[in-house]
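FAQ: What does the model actually see?

It sees only this:
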Amino acid sequence: MLLSRHQVLGRRERDPERLERSAYLLLSRIDTQGPMSIGQLAEAFGLDTSTVNRQTAALLRCGLAERVADPDGGMARKLRITTEGGRRLTVDREANRSCLARVIADWSPEEVQELEDVLVRLNRSAEALEGRYWPRTEEDAPRAP
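And it is asked to produce this:
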């Protein structure tokens, strides 16, 4: 909670135009998985579709996402990140990484690796309990010991 608070407070102080947390999460998921319907997003996050509908409406109003026909030919329209949404997501990701880098600046490389390993395990254990897995690329796959 402290790390999250540190990042949130730092966001507001440095740039009031930073993405809201819900926008960041939705855009990150769409960026990772590709265009998604509101129903798919609701299922992925375990949220009510009305909640996701409100959150995605804000993305659309801000020009961070756009509605597109289902690339797979389905009936539901899907949400895709716009160029501006991708740019803002990239800026926010870098700011988050920079914030974390400042927190662990005096850690040894071994300590940083240990933190990474434990966080990966923590995230995967939480995903397993919920039955909701975050899509990952091959480079994000677990490393062999």
